[in-house]
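Now for a sample.
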Amino acid sequence: MTTEPSVHESSSVNPLQGLDKHSLLLAVATLILLSAFSVITLSISLFALGYGLDNSLQPLPLALSIFFGLLLTYPLIMRASKNYFRQVFIPQLKSTPLWLMISVGTGVVLALLVNQATSIVTPPEGMETTVQTIMQGETLAVVLVYVSVILFAPFFEEYLFRGLIFDGYHHRYGFFIATIVSSVIFMAFHLLEYYDYWVASVAITLLAIVLATIRFKSQSLLNPILCHMTYNLTIILLA
């Protein structure tokens, strides 16, 4: 028997009811909004900073596009799923000392393993991720990417993937299906960045499975957020 996330008894609406289909619509909406806001911010930044559209790979405009793309998109998704946000997500931002250590330790270990794998099976020649490009820029760009990748992305992505999507499918189909669906969609969101490097795609999928397992076993959404934050931080520091 699987354990369901707790829902306040005083609520007349079950936030998990129909969440499997609703979460997929929200995932599509997230992808569309994130792309739109990022492109708009990038375009505005390029002109405001005196660059042309042919200089779209400048670090600061890229950093601004990621920062504002995340900051503008996910609060709208949270607003669109406010019952889940209030009744499930907020109450599950909890942990214990043991799970805090497990979550942080798992993030570090997984990042070290991925770093080792990428040193054995190296990326295609000339491949450079968006974050790597930004890290070569000015201080403001680096600060923005740290905030985006280490704070914003883990918090917001865990809300969508290990929150809405995982819980929606777990409620109807159980742990295995919920893990597969949430992990595949998580990997798909990152596919554009790593489509030609299979090691990175496998690493992202493995991370998603680990995060789903932590979320299920600990019955907490804070723990996968912390694990995700630690993983991203370690990957950046090792780069």
